[in-house]
Amino acid sequence: MGSKNCLMEKISNNLVLAADVGGTNTRMAVVNENGDILTLLKKATHCKNGRDEMIEFIISLAVETIEKSNLSKEEICGMGIGFPGPLNAETGTIFNPPNLDGWDCVPLRGMLEKELGVPVAIENDANAAALGEWWKGAGSGVNSLFCITLGTGVGGGIILDGNIWHGASSIAGEIGHTTVIRDGIKCTCGNIGCLEAYACSGGILRRVNDALLKGRNNDSLQPLTDLKQVSQVIKQGNETVLNVIKETGVILGIAVANIANLLNPEMIVLFGGVTNLGENLVVSLKEEVKRRAFKKATESLRIELSQLGDNSGILGAAKNIFSKL
Amino acid sequence: MGSKNCLMEKISNNLVLAADVGGTNTRMAVVNENGDILTLLKKATHCKNGRDEMIEFIISLAVETIEKSNLSKEEICGMGIGFPGPLNAETGTIFNPPNLDGWDCVPLRGMLEKELGVPVAIENDANAAALGEWWKGAGSGVNSLFCITLGTGVGGGIILDGNIWHGASSIAGEIGHTTVIRDGIKCTCGNIGCLEAYACSGGILRRVNDALLKGRNNDSLQPLTDLKQVSQVIKQGNETVLNVIKETGVILGIAVANIANLLNPEMIVLFGGVTNLGENLVVSLKEEVKRRAFKKATESLRIELSQLGDNSGILGAAKNIFSKL
Q: Is there a contact between B264 and A168 if contact means CB atoms under 8 Å apart?
C-alpha cells in the first residue's frame, strides 16, 4: 500500500487530541483509533504564573496541534490527558500535584470541555503510561499489567482485565511509597524506607555519591549530577558505583516480587529515565524477583522495558478518551 | 413474621451446598440465595489415606447434609467449595496444597460434578473467605476489599468491583509471602522476611518464646504452646509478650500500608485465629498503617475484623456457585 493510501486510512479513523502534561514539558498529539500519532508537538509547560496560565497554555497548544494537522476543530472527537496526580479520573478534578503551584481541587475536565467543545478524559500520568503500554506497547495483548515509572519520582499504574484500577480514592498504584526497608532512609512523603527514596533518580544519585564519599580510592571523583554520568563511570569500571546500581536493582526486585505475589499480573513494565541504567539494574532486579516471589507467579510473569518511551502517556491518554466516546 | 413463614421463605429460594474444606476440619452447609445457612455439619476431614478417601468423604458429607436438611438431591442447584490452594478456580483443578498428600493436578470439579450431578465451583479458601465477608460480612456493600487470613499460615483474598481477582496464574492475594523485613527470618516458603514468618500463629509463638527465653525475669515461664496462653500471660501483665504482639501488629501494619498504597481498597478485613489477640495486635497495626500509608488512602480505608468467623468460607463458596448458575 502506498504512503498516500496509508495516510488516507489513518485520517478516515476517528481522531482525538492526546496530551501528556508535565511540570517541565507538555507533549500534545493528534491520534487515531489505531494508535497512530499523526501530529506531535512538544513544548516547555508554561506554569510559572500559576494554574490559569497553565490552563491557557494547554488550550492554546491544543488549538495549535489541530492547526498543524491541517484539521478543523470539528474533526476532533475528544481529548485525553495524562496529568500529574493526585486527581480524580472520574470527575477530572485535579487535587494538589506536588510540583505544580495553585492547583487545589480544580475541575480541569469541565473547564477544557467548555473551551474546546469536545469530551475530555483526564487520567493520572502513571496510569496513562500504563494504559499506553497496554494498548500499543510492551503489554499489547496481556490481560493484566503493572507499569512502574522510574524517574524524578517512582509511581505506578495498574491495568486489570484491560482497565485501569484506580482504587477507592484514585491513588492505587503507588508502588513508590510501599516500604521496602523497614527502618530505611527518609522519603519525601514523610515515611521511611519507601521504594522511591532508593530508586528515583535523585535517590540513586544521593546513594551513589554517598558511596563514593565513603570509598577510599575515589576521593578525587566529583559528585555525580545525573544518571548519564553514573552509567559512564560504571563503563569506566567503577565497582563502587556499579554496586549501588545493583543494590538498587535488588531493592526494586523486592517491590516487584511483592507485586508478583500480591497481584500476580501477567507483566511488569519498567518505564522512565532510570531504566537507561540498563542491564546493571535490570539483571539484579530480575534475580531478586526470582529469589523472593512464588515460582507460580514468576513463571507467568514477564518483566519488560517500556516500548513506547515518551509516547506511552500520549497513547494512554488517547486510548482513555477513545474508550469513553 | 413468624418463624414458620420465615422458614418457608428461606426454602423457597434456590439452594446450594457450600463447603469449607480444610486439612483438619470440613464444614458443609445448605445455603439459600439470601445467604441464610439452613443446615450446617462439621466433621474432621478424612484424609489420612490420601486424596481418594478425601474425595469420598466430601461426597458422603454432601449427601448427609442434603439428607439432614430434609431435602431431595433435586432441590440442590449446585455446590460451592472453598479448598486449600494452590488451585485453578476456572477449571476447578487442585494443584498441590502443602498440607494435603497425594493432590497433584486433580480435576476435583469434574469429579464432583459427575458424582453429585450438579454444577460445582471451587475457589481457594482465602478467596472464598474474602468473598463471604464481601457478600454477607464486614465488607457488605463495599466495592473493593482485601481479606487477610491470619492462622496457621497467612493468606489473602482480593475482591475488586465485587469480583475475586485471581491474577495470571491463580495466586493473587499472597500477602503472607510479601517481604516486610528485607533480611528477616526464614519463612517456610524458602524466602526470608515474609509476613507469614512473623504473623502466622506458629511464627508468633516462636517469637514470643524466643523473647521469653531472652528475658531475665521470666526464666520460670514454660514455653507457650498456643495463642490463648499468649493472651493469658498478657492479661497477667507480661510486658515482654505484650511487646512481641505489638511488634507483630507493626509488621502487619507495614504489609497493610503497602496494600493501601498499592491497591487502595475500601476495606481490609482481618480474619482467622490470630485476630483473637485483639486490641494488643490491632491498635499497633492501625497506627503503623496511618504512619506509612498516604492520608488519601487511609482516609477512605476501613480496617475491620471478620464478621462471619468460621462461616465466611462457606458463604463465599455459596456466593461463588450462585454467581455461576
A: yes
Question: Exposed (0-12), middle (13-18) or buried (19+): which is B185, by Cβ within 10 Å?
Answer: middle
Domains and CATH numbers, chain A: 3-131+311-322 (3.30.420.40), 141-307 (3.30.420.40)
- One digit per residue, the tens of pLDDT, for chain A of length 325 reads 344 444 444 444 699 999 999 988 999 999 999 999 999 999 999 988 889 999 999 999 999 999 999 999 999 999 999 999 889 999 999 998 877 888 889 999 999 999 999 999 999 999 999 999 999 999 999 999 999 999 989 999 999 999 999 999 999 999 999 999 999 999 988 999 999 999 999 999 999 999 999 876 655 678 999 999 999 999 999 999 999 999 999 999 999 999 999 999 999 999 999 999 999 999 999 999 999 999 999 999 999 999 999 999 999 999 999 999 9
CB contact under 8 A, A263 and B180: no
Distance, CA of A207 to chain centre:
23
**In this complex, is the C-beta atom of B179 within 8 Å of any C-beta atom belonging to chain A?**
yes
| Pairwise CA distance, residues B323 & B78, whole Å | 11
Q: Chain A: nearest CA to B150, how far in angstroms?
A: 16
Across the interface, whether the CB atoms of A177 and B301 are under 8 A apart is answered: no
Report the C-alpha gap between B100 and B45 in whole angstroms.
Answer: 11
